[in-house]
Amino acid sequence: MEKHINIVSFNIPYPANYGGVIDVYYKLMALRALGVKIILHCFEYERPRSRELERICERVFYYKRRTGLLTNLTHLPYNVYSRKDPLLIQHLLENDYPILFEGLHTCYYLGDPRLRHRMKIVRECNIEHDYYRYLAQSGKGFVRNLFFRIEAARFQTYEPVLRHANRIIAVSTTDAAYLRKRFPEQVVDFMPCFHENERITALPGQSDFILYHGKLSVVENERAALFLIERVFRHLRCTCVIAGMNPSRRLIEAAKPYPHIRVEANPDTERMEKLIHQAQIHILITFQNTGLKLKLLNSLFAGRHTIVNTLMLAGSGLDALCHIADTPQEMIQACETLMKQPIDQVSIDQRRNLLYPTFSNKEEGKRLYQMIYED
């Protein structure tokens, strides 16, 4: 008997080139490989419609986000209310298939009484009120910080809508523990991000540069990159590369005084893969402990040495595969040591024991299938 599912995505999940959409896209692929017929509902936001998604899915529906000042005049989170569309609930009511809501941002209709008898799963991406409070501390300008503080308060008030879900799937063990305590009556599971790596492709050997990579227009990533430039990279002698989408002028200017620090803006897929595979060290830091950082998975599947701070590992279970450094001096010392140490195939092969099956798209796809159709 054919299995079907509705998936409601906060954005168009192709190309799969940044955090959340990577998780959505490779989840689609994993379910499709198991024969699931997917009806994808996605909100258009700064990304074009995709023929690739229309090839993968049974049907794809696109909805316009309601952006602007008037959308902010609501007690609901802006990021939820802007994804309200009567066509979405109309299309969801055209069948009786399970519904997977990708993140709290997509949950405007989660508590709709017309869906009370449907199987509803929420994929949790962040503890949103914590995430927006963090942004309020690191954002730029009074108005932007005020918006983030208001959005954090709205999300904390809105979070109880999760009681309408049959199941919540958290992206880290830390988030899963919080949600189990917050919603003791709900079924909460941990399932890490789906990602682009089908196998471990890290290369043995040694190179001469350190890499930090991420979507550089994201406040958190820019803050991390600026910290590394000013507190770590400027004190090193080797080449340091910061690569990712849409770096700000502020970030580019911060690197300019240092000839050994290079910002690579908007590298294409081939170039980014080359940087990830060839870097001697991946250094990844964060200043908040929600969610699971996809760039950490990419580094462990495809890179050599990985240096992280403790917050980067929160709830991941990947501590044994990384070198942990929390202060600038510890990071500098770790970089200087690891730049001299080639990595061999035996060390790379040992990663398999910790990365599989928990971080295998194929195995996690099977688990998700069982949660939806067999539990």
Keywords:
transferase; seven-stranded parallel beta sheet; 39% helix; 13 strands; EC 2.4.-.-; alpha/beta; single chain; glycosyltransferase activity; 375 residues; six-stranded parallel beta sheet; glycosyltransferase
Characterize this entry briefly.
This protein has helices spanning 19-33, 51-56, 78-81, 86-92, 128-138, 142-158, 173-182, 219-231, 249-255, 269-278, 294-302, 310-313, 328-338, 345-355, 361-373; strands at residues 4-9, 37-44, 59-64, 99-102, 120-123, 167-170, 188-190, 209-213, 239-244, 261-265, 281-284, 305-308, 323-324.
Q: Can you tell me about this structure?
A:
- With 375 residues, this protein is α/β, with parallel strands linked by helices.
- It contains 15 helices and 13 strands.
- It has a 7-stranded parallel β-sheet, with helices on both faces. Strands 10-9-8-11-12-13 form a 6-stranded parallel β-sheet, sandwiched between helices.
- Helix 1 (19-33) crosses helix 15 (361-373) and helix 5 (128-138) runs antiparallel to helix 6.
- The longest helix is centred in the middle third of the chain and has 17 residues, at 142-158.
- It is globular, with a radius of gyration of 21 Å.
- The protein starts with a strand and ends with a helix.
- The mean pLDDT is 94.
- This is Glycosyltransferase.
- Keywords: Glycosyltransferase, Transferase.
- Its EC number is 2.4.-.-.
- One of its GO terms (molecular function) is glycosyltransferase activity.
